[in-house]
Amino acid sequence: MPIGKTPGGEYLCFDYRGSTHQPRIVLVTVEMSILPIANSFQELLEGLHDD
């Protein structure tokens, strides 16, 4: 389930394939590759910061 789109046209998505209660966060590229980003939405949020 998409939750965001990058400027390059890639999608940040919830991946419910492994768990319906705590989906992983993945990046779906324009080539349809699926790349893991975080194990949960909470982990994604905790990884966001300004440098």
Give the DSSP E fraction (strand runs of 2 or more residues).
Answer: 35-45%
**In total, how many domains does the architecture comprise?**
1
Helix and strand element order: EEEEH
Counting H and I runs of at least 4 residues, what is the number of helices? 1
Strand order of the largest sheet: 1-2-3-4
Count all strands and give the number. Answer: 4
- Return the average pLDDT rounded to an integer: 93
- Give the fraction of residues assigned to helices: 10-25%
Low-pLDDT residue intervals, each spanning 5 or more residues: none
Computed CA radius of gyration, to the nearest angstrom: 11 Å
Q: Using the alpha-carbon principal axes, give the shape.
A: flat
Alpha carbon gap, first and last residue: 29 Å
Overall structural class, as computed from helix and strand content, comes to mainly beta
Describe the structure.
This protein has 51 residues and is mostly beta strands. The chain has one domain. Helix content is 12%, strand content 37%. It contains 1 helix and 4 strands; from the N terminus they run ββββα. It has a 4-stranded antiparallel sheet with strand order 1-2-3-4. A hairpin with an 8-residue loop joins strand 2 and strand 3. The longest helix has 6 residues. It is flat. It starts with a strand and ends in a 5-residue tail after the last helix.
Offer a few descriptive terms.
51 residues, mainly beta, 12% helix, 37% strand, flat
